[in-house]
């Protein structure tokens, strides 16, 4: 909400099936999916590059989680090729 200038007017419940703290990127994947959903729900129409910028500010591996499929992450995972 902060990055978009909107009030945080959404409540989410996530049914996790990946153990918390397992190091499998479950939390980052959940956060990336939430970012994609809010982009649609709020009608932001942000391009993937803007979503990656916001995601990188939330977690180093989040931009990778936005890509889907196979990708190569460099740096801390914030640069995707």
TrEMBL record:
InterPro entries: GHMP_kinase_N_dom, Ribosomal_Su5_D2-typ_SF, Ribsml_uS5_D2-typ_fold_subgr
GO terms assigned for molecular function: 4-(cytidine 5'-diphospho)-2-C-methyl-D-erythritol kinase activity; ATP binding
Signal sequence range: none
Database matches in SUPFAM superfamilies: Ribosomal protein S5 domain 2-like
Keyword Ligase: no
Transmembrane segments: none
Keywords, sorted A to Z: ATP-binding, Kinase, Nucleotide-binding, Transferase
All copies of domain GHMP kinase N-terminal, residue ranges: 5-69
Keyword Transferase set for record: yes
Superkingdom as given in the UniProt entry: Bacteria
Name of the featured protein: 4-(Cytidine 5'-diphospho)-2-C-methyl-D-erythritol kinase
């Amino acid at each position: 909400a902060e990055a978009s200038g909107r009030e945080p007017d959404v409540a989410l419940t996530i049914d996790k099936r990946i153990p918390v703290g397992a190091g499998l990127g479950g939390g980052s994947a959940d956060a990336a999916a939430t970012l994609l959903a809010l982009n649609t729900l709020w009608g932001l129409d942000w391009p993937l590059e803007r979503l990656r910028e916001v995601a990188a500010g939330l977690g180093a591996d989040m931009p990778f989680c936005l890509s889907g499929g196979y990708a190569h992450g460099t740096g801390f995972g914030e640069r995707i090729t």
